[in-house]
Write a structure and sequence with these properties.
Oligomer: single chain
Helix content: 25-40%
Number of strands: 16
Strand order of the largest sheet: 1-2-4-3-5-16-6-15
Structural class: alpha/beta
Low-confidence stretches: none
Distance between the termini: 17 Å
CATH architecture of the largest domain: 3-Layer(aba) Sandwich
Radius of gyration: 24 Å
CATH superfamily of the largest domain: Zn peptidases
């Protein structure tokens, strides 16, 4: 597989650079999805377009097990600051998270697997809108899942580039590996008044101070220290001038968790904290918006990916994956089938490391055939097992 992947390196680079030059955001990935679908049809895949609005689902093989491979296609609303021959031509949009390479490597794996005699079926999931959500709060994975993109799949795998790790390495582990996410919004309601007569008002800022203290105590004093979670405040807005106490303050924040039990617990505790407002003579409104599931890598799938990495790259080239509470919508595809995501080293040696979502993010393209080979070999092994 590694030899076959290196043999198509030029094509992988050409695909990746083309996608990089023409980044598209959210569900507006029409050009990218069109190229992907056209290429897959040329390879002999059965292709469905417009899945989850603008996603592409393609399958090859007959009967047996189904292994699904997911790749995200969308870019970010970032002004690129690189000076390369393939710099973004769409001002204000950039592939700063490596989705251009994810798409290229999945296409490469599809090309290799199209020539294999498969003992089952391989299904590719090219997904829009991983980075954000639509007007109903749904991401690309959520939309594709709802339309049956993974129906009947036995395993689902994905990869993500890591610009901090050397080319030629991958990282994988079992169990919780990425955070689930909720957003919350709140309004603290008091009674406004003149800044010189605070006793005639019910100051929402005083209530806010107690709420902030309470929210920060949830993970430090209410939750098991060995249970990863975060409660963060991202926005506070209230008041309009220096000598007027406003009647309300608005807040926004995020919750991160690695289990649904913890998610439920934190929601309950956040609600309990806001009850402080009533004790201080005010009132509040609080709403939660589910953002995504935590990434929990299946043990068996992780073990297979680890074995593939060691066989293709060497024992010392496979490492434990750095766990994070950053969110990914890939877990939506794992609702009904076991799966895992691994990371692929793409560090550019001799250059300052710019991490994901940075306007100077880039990757070493020598990693493209490596990621391609790992995807293809993992799929084949699952079908043979």
């Amino acid at each position: 597989m590694l030899k076959q992947a290196h043999a198509i390196s030029e094509e992988l680079i050409e695909w990746r650079r083309d996608f990089h030059q023409h980044p598209e955001t959210g569900f507006d990935v029409h050009r990218t999805a069109g190229i992907v679908a056209d290429e897959l049809e040329k390879m002999g895949y059965r292709v469905k377009r417009g899945v989850g609005k603008t996603g592409v689902v393609a399958e090859i093989g007959e009967g047996g097990k189904v292994v699904a491979i997911r790749a995200d296609m969308d870019a970010l609303p970032i002004f690129e600051q690189n000076e390369t021959e393939y710099v973004s031509q769409n001002e204000g949009k950039m592939h700063a998270c490596g989705h251009d390479s994810h798409t290229a490597m999945a296409l490469g794996a599809a090309r290799i697997l199209a020539k294999e005699k498969l003992n089952g079926r391989v299904r590719f999931l090219f997904q829009p809108c991983e980075e954000t959500a639509d007007e109903e709060g749904k991401s690309g994975a959520q939309r594709m899942y709802a339309e049956g993109a993974v129906d009947g799949a036995d395993y689902v795998i994905a990869q993500h580039v890591d610009p901090t790790k050397p080319v030629g390495t991958i990282a994988i582990n079992e169990g919780p590996s990425g955070g689930g996410v909720d957003s919350w919004t709140a309004t603290i309601k008091g009674v406004g008044g003149h800044g010189a007569y605070p006793h005639k008002s019910k100051d929402p800022f005083v209530m806010l101070a107690h709420v902030i203290t309470g929210l920060n105590a949830i993970t430090s004093r209410k939750l098991d220290p060995f249970e990863p979670a975060v409660v963060s405040i991202g926005s506070v807005n209230g008041g309009f001038t220096e000598n007027v106490i406003p009647d309300q303050v608005e807040m926004k924040g995020t919750i991160r968790f690695t289990s649904l039990e913890t998610q439920k617990f934190i929601r309950e505790e956040v609600t309990r904290v806001f009850e402080i407002v009533k004790a201080l003579g005010g009132d509040y409104e609080l709403d939660f918006l589910f953002g995504g599931l935590p990434l929990v890598n299946d043990r068996h799938v992780a073990e297979v990916i680890e074995k593939v990495g060691k066989d293709l790259l060497g024992e010392d080239k496979v490492h434990p994956m750095h766990k994070t509470l950053g969110a990914e919508d890939f877990p939506e595809f794992l609702r009904d089938a076991p799966g895992a995501m691994y990371t692929l080293g793409t560090k550019i040696e001799g250059r300052e490391v710019y991490e994901l979502h940075h306007p100077k993010f880039d990757l070493d393209e020598r990693a493209l055939p490596i990621g391609t080979a790992v995807l293809a070999e993992t799929a084949v092994r699952f079908l043979k097992s």
